[in-house]
Amino acid sequence: MATINLRVQADGDLLRPYGSLLTASTFTVTEVFDETLVLANSKTWDVWTAVATDDPGQESFAVGIFEASAAAFIEITIDKDGDVGTEEIAIGLAAGEPFILTSNVGKALYTADFAAGTDDVIDQIRIRNEAGAANTVRAIIGSND
User: With 70 as the cut, is the pLDDT of residue 81 above it?
Assistant: First the structure.
């Protein structure tokens, strides 16, 4: 059993909890995957897949925190078992700023403005380095599998 507490710093040295001005966001998990990797330019790290036999061996997650030392991209794929319609999105990671997912829930076969879609879960998370040089990336994923 592990607990992950998130806090952000603002107003100089004043620490404020992430998610609230009063209390920290707390995620109680049974497993924590915490890995740092130096990723060469133009390379992709398959950080997480929803397959128990793949590293890190988690089928779902309660929280994911991703960070890179230089700008990078995070790619998220949604469509459990490939049975609905794959949705993929790539989001820019700013250097030194965490990107946080507080659930693995998503929508597959999604249509703009919430017109349609099927409740589903994240299947894969990848990080791509396009910074022009090596980039140190870190992933912390908390699971209750």
Answer: no
